[in-house]
Amino acid sequence: MGRGYIVENMVEKYLSSLQAPDSTGTSCVTGLLIGQSTSQRDLVALAVRTPQRNTDGQGSPSINRRAWISLDHLDVEWVTEHARQVSRMLPGGLSILGVFLVTVPELSKEAQNILRQLIFAVDKHISKGRLWSLTNEDVTEKVALHICTETRKTVCRTFDIRDPKSSAKPADWKYQLGVCTSWQVLTCSVGLDLLIPVLDMRVLPQDMEKCMKEGLKIWAKQIEVGLCLINGKILADETEIVAGQKKNAKPVQQTFQAQILIPMAEPPSVQTSTVLVKMCSGSLSLKGMVHCRAYLQSNKSRVKDAAKVIKRDIINTVSSRVEMFLEDLLMEGVDNGRTSLKLKTTSTVDTVPEMPCDHPNKAPKSLKNYYISVAMAAAVALLATGTSLLYLSD
Amino acid sequence: MENREQIICQLNTTNEPHIQKVISRTFEDLCSQVKSESLVLSVCNSPVFIWPNKGGRATPECLTPNSPCKDLQQFIQTDDQESMKSKKKEKTNASAVVINLNLMTEVTEPADLSATTLMRCSTKHHFLYTAMPMDCVVSLPSSERLSVVYDALVVALCSQLDEMKKVMLRHMKGMTLLIPQPFHFLLPDPVGLVTVVYPAGVPDSQLEIQRKELHSRFELPGNRPYLRRANSLHFPDEPYKDGYLRNPHLHLKPPTLGNGKLYLVQGVYSYHHYMQDRVDDNGWGCAYRSLQTICSWFQQQGYTEKAVPTHKEIQQALVDVGDKQGSFVGSRQWIGSIEVAAVLDQLLGVTSKIMFVSQGSELASKGRELANHFLSEGTPVMIGGGVLAHTILGVAWSETTGEIRYLILDPHYTGAEDLQVITDKGWCGWKSPQFWDQNAYYNLCLPQRPKTI
């Protein structure tokens, strides 16, 4: 009994528009499948292809023609980096459920291996630096979809990312209209005021990322175990957030205000009679506010699912913004006593996200920056479509 | 309400006035956190959350700022039967109900609405970090409105922070800062409930000056302790961690004598008896146990920080004063009231009066002396005679008729700390003069309170 993926109709249209070999001669098209997987249902809301890598001076058509019969040139690093960028931009509740691969019929046999490789590589890359932990209730299977350009046949399998040696399990892939309608929305604004000391043995700016990560990890743990109120009330975990729904009634999209409460301070692990003093070579201070938003399938979502998605969005939002910011800081190489940088805090769905680097008109400073702008452009295009679907009201 | 608040501050120099400024500023920040809209009070064992600085908003919503504070009780869930029973009792006796609260902060109530900034500072500095153990108590009539309660709590928190800052600065030595700890005391009327902040790690013996100040401020007598850490209030809903029963006599119905009055032990003692602490002293340890009960009284009234001595420690003390040979330690030899007095002096610096009766029947005539003892000293009395030792916790005595009853705590009990059994079977009970062996002679040890604060 494998998983059953219910997929938005628009995704079918999008996938059928993808051709291999395409105009540049690449023999396969890779991409990501985005949605929400719970123990009750697996919903796929969006698909987005890996954008083309625009490397100058690549090949005459003759080289390309040779390329289309093999998957050797497949740049796994590029695919995973795109996945990471997209993952950063997704609102809470939506995540990368898997990978799709469109190939010519000759490559169908290799396709399964490639998909397996991509699934594990993407998951590894996305979960690097993740500040929250997976629980027993999380679905750890990812979908690998293969589409043949000629027959347009889809082969859908899943891999369990907890077990690298596991074999693929068959899964259902069914298109349906209205998958993206009437999801429940949770929102909140989170205030930040973290002071992270940089202990003497560490040196800024090299160890900045490590220090920041350590400090954020403590904060993330507090958020994870914090109490979550939905619309001002504390409810039992198993309560459905949309209470009293008639059996076949059409679900209505509702917005819920989330509140997170944490204890003011934790008792120390070791009781001391004196205040702890540490020598530091510097400090990092994170202050301000972020807006967070998470989406939940309307089908019988419970309070504990809601709490989970909004908390994870809070942690992801702060964590990915800080990551982007640190990347910028390292590139700038500024090192004069004090540095301060403002993070743009825009919600990722209802407005067009701005470029994370401060100077969008300059030529990209490095390959990394370039990835960002390309990936975001592609993701934005599709999220824009996704947005309108998600906001469809009855 | 007990909880912790984080204190983090950075010091660039070890210059003392500078340190003081930084610490003061940090406490000001803490105070503004307490007054901010993101402060949330959570009522323990209940689904109640309160935002005291947001107009008293609460969930569940039926708790409005104008509701009487006793309305909070209905939401508190206790799972065990015992406390349900005691709650019922308390309602009929109209005694104080304790509601415990925790301090929380709402992360989703941002104080600063500006976009996120990350600041990096590369100067060397000292980083100080601790969690402040806040513990405030507010005592109000149950009909008082919740809005008054919230205001009182926030005020109490701020003033405790201020006191903590003063204590921290007063005891600061260079970069060593002591953590201030709050203690609650129930002082005699009209003072009532007070909270005092003492620095951690400084023993009571070194805090006499502070206690003198407080004794004069609260107009307390200058010859007995009220404000040592051991005197701190034990809340009725907190169990004692050491497992000994406290004051079992309070659960007894006292006898009624014509024109009689009760003269009882003052304060708190623990019930020590045979077989406790995995020591099988059945048949020989009764005086030792009575002595342990007396020591527990001195410790809980704040006269000593020493733990209740073991049988061996008692025996060693007698060897140390030259009363016994070295072979006494580890033996099962009995001791009497003279030895009890000697040990109290050696280990606790407590002097005792010895009373002697040549016949048990004479004890009936010692009513006045015993009554006076309980009035002025109020310490438990050890009585030894014949082959038995007991502890006298009080007398019921009529000055006119001379009738007397003795409140006895019996160290010969070998069972578990079961209050029901102990009171029902008379292991702690009121006895008539016939209780004593009418022909045996008895010695009584009456410990005297040292004159100290």
Automatic annotation (TrEMBL), chain A:
What parts of the sequence cross the membrane? 370-392
Q: Which UniProt keywords apply?
A: Membrane, Transmembrane, Transmembrane helix
Q: Tell me where it mainly resides.
A: membrane
GO cellular component terms, alphabetically, are: endomembrane system; membrane
Gene Ontology BP annotations: intracellular protein localization
Please name one Pfam family that this protein belongs to.
ODR4-like
The record's annotation in InterPro entries points to: ODR-4-like
Q: Where in the cell is it found?
A: Membrane
Signal sequence bounds? none
* Record's function text: May play a role in the trafficking of a subset of G-protein coupled receptors.
Q: Which PANTHER family match?
A: PROTEIN ODR-4 HOMOLOG
The similarity annotation says: Belongs to the ODR-4 family.
Question: Per its record, how is this protein called by name?
Answer: Protein odr-4 homolog
Q: What organism is the protein native to? A: Esox lucius
Q: Which gene encodes it?
A: ODR4
From TrEMBL, chain B:
Which superkingdom does the taxonomy of this entry point to? Eukaryota
Entry-linked InterPro entries: UFSP1/2_DUB_cat, UFSP2-like_2nd
* Entry keyword set: Hydrolase, Protease, Thiol protease, Ubl conjugation pathway
Task: Say if the entry is tagged with keyword Cytoplasm.
Answer: no
Task: Name one matching Pfam family.
Answer: Peptidase_C78
GO annotation (BP), single: proteolysis
Q: How is this protein annotated for GO cellular component?
A: endoplasmic reticulum; nucleus
Please state every residue range assigned to the domain named UFSP1/2/DUB catalytic.
261-445
Q: UFSP2 second domain: which residues?
A: 24-240
Official protein name in the record: Ufm1-specific protease 2
One GO molecular function term? Answer: deUFMylase activity
Question: What gene does this protein come from?
Answer: UFSP2
Q: Which family does it belong to?
A: Belongs to the peptidase C78 family.
